[in-house]
């Protein structure tokens, strides 16, 4: 049996169209899913939309629409944007799907049957934009006057008879689980944050609402709807068949990694595993909380009015430039400032001048000096062994960085090889070797063809369109683009016809 890999993004609220922040998480998950497929894993990549809750109801009412019609309109924008960004997910889940509703009610019933749900009265502050309760412990003096400690927007005072989940019961279990699984939450700063907060104690949480009806009804009380976060978190189960398709569910659960932004860490790293413990299910293997994109040190968000939409930059730079920039510019897990000048520099310097120039130089010389066919290596030039050693080392480092979701470091190693290849051309001077008419020219051209083939394999998860074009330019087949079998040096067949085509990355002014 092939090993499995199950990766998820959070499901995104449909109160607005997707922006560069949601694209960031989705591209990162797509890169990991593509990488694991190349490595031979049976991979499941889940993304989707969160369509219930008061925030969505109010957004729909503001436009004079019913919430389902409103959600359908926004979801169509997600479909289009993810297609434009070349996101290859396996399933797109919507919380309005009937099978998802059944999964939520089933999970709720299992937790209730375990004695972990009781009826009580909630009295306190609630942040509708975050769909979260503001506890007494996290309330500052400003919070007590109604400010959300996460988004700083006004909260509302609620007083309702609701159903509660005994989150407090799982404090010791969570601490013990974290001690035994030190990589459950990453980066380590997020792990420490979660651990410290749990040590301070856990409060039971309200998991239903009675003041509006846009949500999934409780199986035992149709007058109440399930809290939107309980509803949303369950998508990670329903997306792989829970509870009806037991075969798929058993194959892929537990999830290997939930990719999320740091502002929703508590829901995923604490509330979610406790819900699963109560229901007798395994928690996910890893929660990875990445940082925010900022603009002039301000978080990019609709509420701040500094949103960047993918279409705004795709038209100018191309989709693979955007995918490359987002995962190359900052270490995954940290905050980073988004700027068009930085994107322009990455595009023109690294993609156009270094990668694009390397490929064009290589293919032009094969075309000019060997009739557009990859020559046979004569074994005169000793560089083949050096390149073989370099790419063997690159494979080990690249894989290690990818497993840790350190995308920028993985790309940095690939770019070291690209820069060395450009220097190799300058040092060997194929145009001079052509005049000498020795077998060394054939060796150099063969090595260059292999170098760009190998570079295309490493770039495929990040820049799939670019990797496919390079493959077509080199005339190679799919057997040469897998990991790890396609990473050994010397696989391209002599006589393979190349087609240099046009420049991959025209410079942007």
Give the averaged pLDDT, no decimals. 92
Q: What is the overall silhouette? A: elongated
Which structural class fits the helix and strand makeup? alpha/beta
- What is the H level of CATH, i.e. the homologous superfamily of one domain? Isoleucyl-tRNA Synthetase, Domain 1
- Give the proportion of residues in helices: 40-55%
Name of the CATH class of one domain: Mainly Alpha
How far is it from the N-terminal to the C-terminal residue, by CA? 50 Å
Major sheet summary line: 7 strands, parallel
CATH topology of one domain: Isoleucyl-tRNA Synthetase, Domain 1
- What are the segments in which pLDDT stays under 50 over at least 5 consecutive residues? none
Tell me the quaternary state: single chain
Number of strands: 17
CATH architecture of one domain: Orthogonal Bundle
Radius of gyration, in Å, reads: 26 Å
Number of helices: 19
β-sheet strand percentage: 5-15%
Short summary:
With 509 residues, this protein is α/β, with parallel strands linked by helices.
């Amino acid at each position: 049996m092939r090993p499995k890999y199950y990766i998820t993004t959070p499901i995104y609220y449909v109160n607005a169209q997707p922006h560069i922040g949601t694209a960031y998480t989705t591209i990162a998950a797509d890169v990991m899913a593509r990488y694991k497929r190349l490595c031979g894993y049976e991979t499941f990549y889940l993304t989707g939309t969160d369509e219930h809750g008061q925030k969505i109801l109010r957004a729909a009412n503001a436009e004079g629409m019913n919430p389902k019609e409103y959600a359908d309109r926004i979801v169509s924008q997600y479909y289009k944007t993810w297609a434009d960004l070349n996101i290859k997910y396996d399933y797109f889940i919507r919380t309005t799907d009937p099978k998802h509703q059944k999964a939520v009610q089933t999970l709720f019933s299992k937790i209730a049957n375990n004695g972990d749900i009781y009826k009580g009265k909630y009295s306190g502050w609630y942040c509708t934009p975050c769909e979260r309760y503001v506890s007494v412990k996290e309330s500052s003096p400003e919070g007590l006057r109604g400010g959300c400690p996460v988004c700083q927007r006004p909260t509302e005072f609620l007083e309702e008879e609701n159903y509660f989940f005994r989150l407090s019961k799982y404090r010791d279990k969570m601490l013990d689980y974290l001690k035994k699984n030190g990589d459950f939450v990453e980066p380590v700063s997020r792990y420490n944050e979660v651990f410290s907060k749990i040590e301070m104690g856990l409060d039971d949480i309200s998991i239903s609402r009675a003041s509006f009806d846009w949500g999934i009804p409780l199986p035992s009380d149709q007058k109440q709807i399930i809290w939107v976060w309980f509803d949303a978190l369950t998508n990670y189960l329903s997306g792989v068949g829970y509870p009806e398709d037991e075969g798929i569910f058993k194959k892929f659960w537990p999830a290997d990694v939930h990719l999320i932004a740091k502002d929703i860490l508590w829901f995923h790293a604490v509330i979610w595993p406790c819900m699963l413990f109560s229901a007798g299910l395994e928690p996910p293997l890893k929660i990875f909380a990445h940082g925010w994109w900022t603009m002039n040190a301000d978080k990019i968000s609709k509420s701040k009015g500094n949103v960047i939409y993918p279409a705004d930059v795709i038209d100018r730079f191309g989709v693979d430039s955007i995918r490359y920039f987002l995962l190359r510019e900052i270490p995954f897990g940290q905050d980073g400032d988004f700027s068009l000048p930085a994107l322009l520099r990455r595009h023109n310097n690294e993609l156009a001048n270094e990668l694009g120039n390397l490929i064009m130089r290589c293919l032009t010389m094969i075309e000019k000096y060997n009739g557009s066919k990859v020559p046979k290596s004569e074994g005169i030039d000793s560089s083949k062994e050096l390149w073989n050693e370099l790419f063997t080392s690159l494979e080990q480092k690249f894989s290690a960085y990818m497993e840790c979701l350190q995308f920028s470091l993985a790309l940095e190693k690939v770019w070291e090889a690209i820069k060395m290849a450009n220097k190799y051309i300058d040092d060997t001077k194929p145009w001079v070797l052509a005049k000498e008419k020795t077998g060394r020219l054939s060796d150099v051209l063969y090595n260059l063809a292999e170098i760009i083939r190998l570079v295309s394999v490493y770039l495929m998860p990040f820049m799939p369109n670019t990797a496919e074009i390079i493959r077509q330019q080199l005339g190679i087949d799919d057997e040469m683009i897998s990991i790890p079998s396609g990473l050994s040096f010397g696989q391209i067949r002599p006589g393979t016809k190349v087609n240099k085509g046009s420049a991959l990355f025209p410079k942007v002014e």
